[in-house]
Design brief:
Layout lengths: L15 E3 L15 E7 L4 E7 L5 E3 L5 E2 L4 E6 L6 E5 L4 E7 L6 E9 L4 E6 L5 E6 L4 E7 L6 E3 L5 E2 L6 E4 L5 E6 L4 E8 L2 E4 L5 E2 L5 E6 L5 E6 L4 E7 L6 E3 L5 E2 L4 E7 L4 E6 L4 E7 L6 E3 L5 E2 L4 E6 L5 E6 L4 E7 L5 E8 L7 E3 L2
């Protein structure tokens, strides 16, 4: 699938959440050892690299590995034994098992059917459930995950109906709430989650004070939801009702971001939030006030990325941010300093327009 033009109906999204970093010095860091996996929608594949502590990328033998049609979102099970890829063109999910030593991927057939156009996919922190936002069928599919084989089984009641054109997904950090963005309506749907089953929160969907909401993430302690408004170049900050999960925008919201903010990258206990700006080719970095939800731009923000950045991920040590650039067909690697600011240290070509990125430990 060639790169899509920037429109509210066809935005691509992938989010990932990893452990935290914090502090106030300017020490620069490098990556830990592991494997890097990048979806390549236009060639129906997944590119794979090993990366060492000096941030050197080495292609994994056999890369890119075949997936379904137009693979987009990618998630890795917490045990690192299973990798899932949502294929937007073939309306299904591929399950891969990575070799512990080499990182080589083997696909386990058959693929699991989804709704039409699985735009986004997320997994809960325990690796028990996977959720997909099916943009063209206006549903969210939910699957239980076998801890032994990685196989997916759609739960009773799935797919769950949602508002028009679901695009982005995020779970609360406690896992009991699911939020879904709808860019054409400038709204966010909210659901309670119990054993994967979704129930709409009273009052859902909730309006946001920006246009084209896409990326979503929660703040510390599940008190706030942050929404990237891609068409109005800002971020909505919404309180999360502790009892019901209902949303309400705070007085200081929305806050300015770059042009075309499309996705967030955060840590598990975030002191900082990073916003990937698709059209201004950079990453905005903010510190988070855990009490008020307010965001403060970090010194030097925004930080230059490649052309067309679309999504990112932070490594397990919390010291490195990876951002995939759709137009440039590259990965930008940023060192995260302990004050949250970024230092660009490496750019790696992936050979084709990427969709999303994930890392094994």
């Amino acid at each position: 699938m060639p790169m899509r033009s920037f429109s509210l109906a066809t935005l691509c999204l992938a989010l990932a959440i990893f452990p935290s970093c914090g502090g106030t010095s300017n020490t620069e860091n490098t990556t830990t050892k592991g494997s890097v996996y990048v979806t390549l929608p236009s060639i129906n594949g997944v590119s794979a690299f090993r990366i060492d502590s000096s941030a050197k990328f080495t292609p994994i033998v056999g890369s890119p590995f075949a997936a379904g049609s137009s693979p987009q979102s990618i998630v890795i099970h917490p045990n690192n034994k299973f990798i899932y890829v949502a294929n937007r063109g073939s309306n299904n999910i591929s399950l891969f098992t990575p070799d512990d030593r080499t990182g080589v991927l083997t696909e386990v057939m058959p693929r699991t059917p989804t709704g039409i156009d699985p735009q986004a996919m997320i997994m809960d922190t325990n690796g028990a459930f996977i959720y997909t936002a099916n943009q063209a069928s206006n549903t969210v599919s939910v699957y239980s995950v076998s801890s032994s084989s990685g196989a997916l089984s759609e739960i009773a009641g799935s797919p769950f109906a949602t508002t028009l054109q679901p695009t982005g997904l995020t779970l609360s950090r406690s896992g009991n709430l699911l939020y879904v963005s709808h860019p054409n309506l400038a709204m966010v749907s909210a659901y309670t989650v119990a054993s994967g089953v979704l129930q709409p929160v009273p009052g859902s969907p909730f309006p946001v004070a920006g246009l084209g909401p896409t990326g979503l993430t929660t703040g510390p302690s599940d008190h706030f939801l942050y929404v990237a408004n891609s068409a109005s170049n800002n971020i909505s900050i919404m309180t999360i009702n502790a009892t019901t999960g209902a949303l309400a925008e705070i007085l200081a919201s929305p806050m300015a971001a770059g042009t075309g903010p499309i996705s967030f990258v955060t840590n598990s206990t975030p002191a900082f939030i990073y916003v990937v700006n698709l059209q201004s080719n950079n990453v905005s970095a903010f510190s988070v006030d855990a009490n008020t939800g307010a965001l403060t731009a970090l010194t030097g923000s925004p930080f230059a990325a490649g052309t067309g950045p679309i999504s990112g991920v932070i490594d397990s040590s919390g010291t490195t941010l990876f951002v995939v650039n759709q137009t440039a067909s590259t990965i930008s690697l940023f060192g995260i300093k302990t004050d949250g600011t970024l230092n660009t240290s490496t750019t790696q070509s992936v050979g084709s327009a990427p969709g999303a990125i994930a890392l094994t430990k």
